[in-house]
Specification:
Endonuclease, Chain A, 102 residues, disordered N terminus, 37% helix, 4-stranded mixed sheet, Restrct_endonuc-II-like, alpha+beta, globular, 4 strands, 4 helices
């Protein structure tokens, strides 16, 4: 039996499904639930270096989670990744291309 590392999420949320559908509709190739740098699993990875997260409004508004997200963002940016986090409420209202690819 293969164990899943603790940083790997194995299920998709409703907002992740919506974001994945949006990426597909725009013919954007991506990898889902991709472990990056052994510190995080990004919801969607778009080559060469885009880490795209679909963050739930409730959990990602908690101070400890916000601080963790900030540390992850900073670490990834130092390593050359572009990090974009979209809140569930933003995704449900409609994703703007510019909010991801500016």
């Amino acid at each position: 039996m293969v164990e899943t590392p603790p940083f790997v999420q194995t299920r998709n949320t409703d907002i992740e499904r919506l974001l994945g559908q949006w990426l597909n509709q725009h013919n954007i190739k991506f990898e889902e639930q991709k472990p990056v740098e052994k510190i995080t699993t990004v919801d969607f990875f778009v080559k060469p270096n885009l880490c795209l997260y679909a963050d739930g409004d409730y959990w990602h508004s908690k101070e400890d989670v916000r601080q963790r997200d900030k540390r992850i963002n900073e670490t990834l940016q130092i390593k050359g990744y572009k990090v974009v986090r979209l809140l569930g409420s933003e995704i449900k209202k409609g994703i703007r291309y510019e909010s991801i690819f500016n």
